[in-house]
Amino acid sequence: MKMVKAITIAMVAFAAAVAANAGSIMSVATDIKTKLSGDVYDTALAAAKSGNKKVMLLFSGLEWCLPCQVFNKEVVKNADFEKFAKDSLVFVEFDTKRDGTVDITSNTPEVTNLDLFAEQRVIQKSSIQKKFGVYSVPCAIILDKDGKEMFRQVGCGITATDFIDKVKNAK
Fold this sequence. Notes:
Blueprint: H1 2-20, H2 22-37, H3 40-51, E1 54-60, H4 66-76, H5 79-88, E2 89-96, E3 102-106, H6 109-112, H7 118-131, E4 139-143, E5 149-154, H8 160-169
Parallel strand pairs: 1-2
Antiparallel strand pairs: 1-4, 2-3, 4-5
């Protein structure tokens, strides 16, 4: 009888604790739903449409991939490309780290402000990578504002000037 009473008291205490914390549990659930609802791809396309720009998705591994480092130095960090990207592109980079985590950077506040969980960044990168059949890095994909692929550069064998020209002329 004492055991039944102890179990009953424990169950009542547990139910009271759950009821007392229901608000904070709902707050955490709402925060998780908000963060998971941010979609990098859709946000980038919306920004491209509103700014009448193309989208550049760059898949890289700057910590461990020598060709990615070369592409970053020769193209992405080139002053002419930086100006061109600011004026003409919604630039989104998915940089996969050695430990498998992903940094997502962009020149567009709408994408930068998504504030995604680490796991969600990996999931979104993987989903977009699969959608476009990206199997090696570096890989830069240029999309029109509707999401149609216009141009793809795989590897680092291109100058900033040639890359800009190809993006400008991509149809």
